[in-house]
Amino acid sequence: MIRLQADPIETASVVAEAAGAGDGAVCAFLGTVRNVNAGKPVLFLEYEAYAGMAEREMERIAAEAVARFGVTKVEIVHRVGRVEIGEASVVIAVAAPHRAPAMDACRFVIDTLKTSVPIWKREHFDDGAVWVEGGG
Description:
Number of strands: 10
Strand content: 35-45%
Strand order of the largest sheet: 1-6-8-2
Shape: elongated
Number of domains: 1
Low-confidence stretches: none
CATH topology: Aldehyde Oxidoreductase, domain 3
């Protein structure tokens, strides 16, 4: 499950999709929309992505995590469009036989996603909106 979607993410289904019978650990990361940034109230976020290219890059990151950390499965779902305060903008689930590789791979996936996947974040405030660097 590597995808972009406009609808809210079903976190439990992403985690369930990752888990296999031989896995003793599933590490999940939820990136959620907070209501303040740099001391300024945020109303909502808006995400845009270069569809196709973004999914291919997420697939590449997932494959690299499997190869590098020996995990069994990586799931990545990222929102596009308007995302409200408290909603998940990204959900990552990594399964492995043991916790350390799952946790290490999960951090690698989110850190790499934020720097290399063509997804852009726009924060909306009472007085306007700004694009945020490292928006994925």
